[in-house]
Amino acid sequence: MRGIKAIIPRALPTGVRLVCADNTGAKELEIIAVKGYKGIRRRYPAAGVGDMVVVSVKKGTPEIRKQVHYAVIIRQRKEYRRPDGTRIKFEDNAAVITDAEGKPKGSEIRGAVAREAAERFPKIGSIASIIV
């Protein structure tokens, strides 16, 4: 896992529902915790593109529902600025289910993946069809 060059606003606090963009059988995820978040008093832990989160599967196949997994956020609606001056935003908030090391559990990712997430987690970048 490498560092990210862009300054990404952490626009996804705990409790947010995300689209699952892989073929593991999950359809909707809810953020439970943000891995590596240290915290400030009375502030919700929040995540952005390229962050690893702990999620609960809310909708999907019966085998994967009601389970807790790790996931990496690959898209967010809130725009963020890259060092070259471009601003990036996506049409939805999406994540990919992974293991604790960041290796994806699915073999396919639907939709675009942010370059920051693909650089930080190379295994996600290798199975992504589009990197923006």
Description:
The protein has one domain: Ribosomal Protein L14 (Beta Barrel). Strand 2 and strand 3 (26-34) form a beta hairpin. The longest helix has 6 residues, at 115-120. Helix content is 9%, strand content 36%. With 132 residues, it is mainly beta. The chain has helices at 115-120, 122-127, and strands at 12-13, 17-20, 26-34, 46-47, 52-60, 68-75, 80-81, 87-88, 94-98, 112-113, 130-131. It starts with 11 loop residues before the first strand and ends with a strand. It has a five-stranded mixed β-barrel with strand order 2-3-5-6-9. A two-stranded antiparallel sheet has the order 1-4. A two-stranded antiparallel sheet has the order 7-8. The protein is globular and about 45 Å long. The mean pLDDT is 95.
Q: Features of this protein?
A:
132 residues; Ribosomal Protein L14; 2 helices; mainly beta; 5-stranded mixed barrel; 36% strand; two-stranded antiparallel ribbon
Structure summary, number of beta strands: 11
Order of helices and strands: EEEEEEEEEEHHE
The number of helices is 2
According to CATH, what is the topology?
Ribosomal Protein L14
What percentage of the residues does DSSP assign to strands (E)? Answer: 35-45%
Q: Which spans of ≥5 residues are poorly predicted at pLDDT below 50? A: none
Q: What is the level 1 CATH name?
A: Mainly Beta
> Sheet with the most strands?
5 strands, mixed, barrel
Q: What is the SS-derived class?
A: mainly beta
Distance between the termini: 19 Å
Instruction: Estimate the global geometry from the Cα principal axes.
Output: globular
The order of strands across the largest sheet is 2-3-5-6-9
Domain count: 1
Radius of gyration based on Cα positions? 14 Å
CATH architecture: Beta Barrel
Say which CATH homologous superfamily is assigned: Ribosomal protein L14/L23
